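Internal QA ticket QA-208
Title: Verify multi-chain structure generation after dependency bump
Assignee: T.L.

Test input:
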Amino acid sequence: MNNSVVVTIPSHPKYLSVVRDITAGIGKVNGLADSIIGDIKLAVDEACSNVMKHAYKGETDKKILLKYKVTKRSFKLTIEDKGTKVNMENMKGRDLEDIKPGGLGIHFIKRVFDVFELDEKKKSGNRLILIKYLKEK
Amino acid sequence: MEINLVDYKGRKVIAVTGDIDMYSSPELREALMSFTQKKIPSIAVDFNKVSYIDSSGIATFVEGLKIMKTYGGRLQFFGIPKGIMEIFRFSKLDKVFEIYGSIEEAEGN
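Actual output:
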């Protein structure tokens, strides 16, 4: 099993539902459990929302490139944009005990993905690398 | 997402259908704030037909709750599907929001 899918979406929030459907579909055809698909779908939505808010600062006519690769061992996704550079220091999320609006998205991403890192080699824009390791059946 | 504002025995109910995400949550916020601006003392949210919620949807409810607390109001949720309940638990918000199984149960508290 070695399946790759590449998708480009506009940076408009109305396309988040499209990203969720694609993500869920990729999970489904690769035999992932519904509970894992639900968690991955939420995490990918949050990661794309962050690109729209922080890298593109609400500009809705930019592009977000998603590259999925599923193997027996892992579900890997890279999310690329050409927006403002973000850094890991700003991607910590709020303390879960500190109840206030916002700051949960990063926790939803880290909750499901084992690897959550920015590709420092990318010169302009951002490349977020997300990997979830799968238990072999 | 679709929002219906319903009166149940004099109580304001926000019945939400579909996905609550960064695209749809501003509409939810508008509905919630239309009640909080009038300092409605008790607002219930019907989650029975909510299929999805992300952090922007949750942030909207946290904001609404904080405003309601300033005037002693109560924000109650009922009918939360299992998958969404897990998100509330993970976020430790199941202890923050008043969560009930049904509107009758919410009404009795």
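Spot checks passed. The interface with chain B takes residues 12-14, 16-17, 20, 35, 38, 41-42, 45-46, 49, 52-53, 96-97, 99-105, 107-108, 111 of chain A (CB under 8 Å).
Status: verified.
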